[in-house]
Amino acid sequence: MHALKEARKFIQQDPDNPSARTLSRLVLALESEADFPISDIYKLDFDSFALALRILDQWRLDRYYAGKARLFDVSLQTLEIKPPPPQS
To answer: What is the pTM of this model?
Structure first.
């Protein structure tokens, strides 16, 4: 399955899942070309980590892919529904 589509489905299934939230923040950072702490990717479980790497790979290749817009929308909605907890 295409990584962007897989990420969108993963985020939609459980938007409160910490991995889904990290992937959402990654997507938003990629779309806005903002900084993203790479250490957050290392905190993911193995499957989510692999998905994050596939997102990075496909994002670079598919800069204008239509599925990216849908994933961006889901990621934005996920973080607007419940803002991330403050980092200490």
So the answer is: 0.73
